[in-house]
Amino acid sequence: MEMESGDKDKDVANDTEALDAHSENQAGALHKEWALAKRIGKSEVAIFSAIGEVVKEPQKMNMWNQFQHFMVAEDSMNWKQRPGQSQDKFQAAIQKAYEEVLDLLEEDKDYYVEQLNDWYVKKMYEHTTED
Predict the structure, then answer these.
(1) Residue span of the structural domain in which 80 resides
(2) Cα–Cα–Cα angle for 42, 44, 48, nearest 5°?
(3) Helix-strand-coil split of the chain, %, nearest 5
(4) What is the pTM of this model?
(5) pLDDT of residue 60
(6) Region (Disordered): which ranges (predicted)?
(7) Residue 7 pLDDT > 90, yes or no?
(8) What is the Cα–Cα distance from 67 to 97, expressed in whole angstroms?
(9) 54-99: per-residue pLDDT in tens?
(10) At what angle do helices 87-102 and 106-128 cross, to 10 degrees?
């Protein structure tokens, strides 16, 4: 049996009213929780962090942090610590490669720094937008 046009309109109106009431209830509850949090002296950042709505800010973006990540990331240089190689030796190898980049002529270094920044920003975007 097919629904008449008037019945469909009533169903849509009922669904819309139910959705509006639900949204109002959620907004009211959030407002009360927000007011309570503010009353006990918590910041907006702390509140959002507590409910999982804030992604922790990654380390400050600087060339050394970017370079270390680039050297070991699977989709870039993919450097791995060799069997028997200490963490200190592995870190020293990364530092040596970093110093070699720093020792490049300014124009060459600028090119690598730009590529590194682009790669790092893309990685951070992918990391913070994953579902």
Answers:
(1) 63-128
(2) 105
(3) 70, 0, 30
(4) 0.51
(5) 62
(6) 1-25
(7) no
(8) 9
(9) 555 555 678 898 899 899 988 889 999 999 999 999 999 999 999 9
(10) 130
